[in-house]
Design brief:
single chain
Length: 200
């Protein structure tokens, strides 16, 4: 049974979706989906998770798509409009685990430049005893190296850790390394998953 919990952040503790912002910029769903599929793609965004600043990452994209300069700049300038608040079920679980003395840590693909603002969204982040973030380490999930770094930094063997993430590739990578895993798809299933492992 796991002795500690390792949390992803985006769409596990707080909700993040570029469409939350770009639905305001592109009211036409087809136009919005085309922009996110062809211009500001998740592959392009990965550079931010590896530590590149928004203003440095957008220059080449603006040169290629000058007609979309304002929308490209919005990715950084209106970044916080992509969030829609913390996930109540996760906040409650983190508080309950804290009350039981269960060690909790974070492992997230996130820019170091936005971490402070993200943590300000919920007091639950204050319950994490440490975080490993991709932007500060130059490593990104599902690279096994970032999982090994988290274990080394937090002093846990993979088999002693429950890893919770919304990304299937990240879940599979952690499972292969020996972590217990919970694929976060339904907030209502979180507490039962923790109870089934004796953590709550």
């Amino acid at each position: 049974m796991p002795k500690a919990v390792l949390w992803d952040i985006g769409n596990v503790i707080v909700r993040w979706d570029p469409r939350t912002l770009y639905s305001k910029i592109f009211p036409d769903p087809a136009e919005r989906d085309r922009f996110l599929a062809e211009i500001c793609t998740m592959a392009w965004h990965e550079a931010h998770d590896l530590g590149v600043r928004f203003e440095d990452n957008r220059a080449e994209l603006i040169a290629r798509f000058p007609d979309h300069e304002a929308a490209i700049c919005a990715w950084g300038e209106r970044w916080w409009e992509m969030f829609s608040g913390p996930i109540a079920e996760t906040e409650a679980a983190i508080e309950a685990l804290h009350a039981r003395g269960v060690p909790q840590h974070g492992l997230s693909n996130i820019s170091q430049h936005t971490l402070e603002g993200t943590f300000a969204m919920s007091p639950a982040f204050g319950r994490l005893q440490g975080v490993v973030i991709s932007g500060a380490e130059g490593l990104i999930k599902p690279d096994p190296a970032i999982f090994r770094l988290a274990c080394e930094r937090f002093g846990h063997a993979p088999q002693d850790v429950l890893f919770i993430d919304d990304g299937p590739r990240n879940i599979e990578a952690a499972r292969t390394l020996g972590f217990d895993v919970h694929h976060f798809t339904d907030p209502a299933q979180l507490r039962p998953a923790l109870e089934a492992r004796g953590l709550l």
